[in-house]
Amino acid sequence: MSQPTTWGCPRAADAPQTPEQVADRVDDSLDALLSNNSGTARPAYAVAGMTWHDSANGVWYLFDGTDDWPINIRSGSSNVLGSVAGTDAITATLTPTLTAYAELTTVLLVTAAANTGAVTLDIDGVGAKSVVKAAGTALSGGDLVSGGAYTLWYDGANDRFQVVGL
Predict the structure, then answer these.
(1) Residue 60 CB neighbour total at 10 angstroms
(2) How many other C-beta atoms can be found within 10 angstroms of the C-beta atom of residue 157?
(3) Is the dihedral of CA 77, 101, 92, 106 positive or negative?
(4) How far is residue 143's CA from residue 132's CA, in Å, rounded to a whole number?
(5) What is the rounded CA–CA span in Å between residue 87 and residue 107?
(6) I need a surface site. Which of 6, 73, 129, 159 has the fewest CB within 10 A?
């Protein structure tokens, strides 16, 4: 759906408005509310603290008054990585297919084997990125155990994945 350019019922300052114009604007506002502010761009009426859903790429954003911050990039699917292979150069897939890493992309990795040293992760062939501890240091051998489940998030500023709590 396309977003309305303004929110709510027209005020007297917006007059004159026909009853049909008022009803259309209220209907547009309710559609936006019921769709969780879903559209292909941030709604024009966005205010700081509002979330909105980019229906073109499945990304949820938090608008801080200036910038849109991605808060969840997956829509209608799990963030659990599939087809995980490798020990230190890990490859994996997501459904639907990931086409780019976005800031704060969060995934659940269930390892196929224990790592033996520094680790990289390549999801859907997007590109291998370093996997580091929460403090930003490289993983050491045995930090990831075989069959262990780890939450990772993409740190776009440093172009790497960080393991939560490690």
Answers:
(1) 19
(2) 7
(3) negative
(4) 10
(5) 17
(6) 159
Quick check: 77 and 94 in contact, CB under 8 A? Answer: yes
| Alpha carbons 91 and 116: distance in angstroms, whole number | 16
* Average pLDDT over the chain, rounded to an integer: 81
Question: Is 96 strand, coil or helix?
Answer: coil
Assign 113 to helix, strand or coil. Answer: coil
The arrangement of strands across the sheet holding 50-54 comes to 38-39, 50-54, 59-63, 68-72
Q: Is 4 exposed, middle or buried (0-12, 13-18, 19+ CB in 10 A)?
A: buried
DSSP H helices in the chain: 19-34
CB 49 within 8 A of CB 63: yes
Q: pLDDT per residue over 106-115, tens digit each?
A: 888 999 999 9
Check whether 6 has a pLDDT greater than 70: no
User: How far is residue 143's CA from residue 117's CA, in Å, rounded to a whole number?
Assistant: 8
HSE-up of residue 87 (Cα within 13 Å, Cβ side)? 10
What do you get for the CA distance between the two ends of the chain, in Å?
41
Q: Where are the domains of the chain?
A: 12-72, 82-163
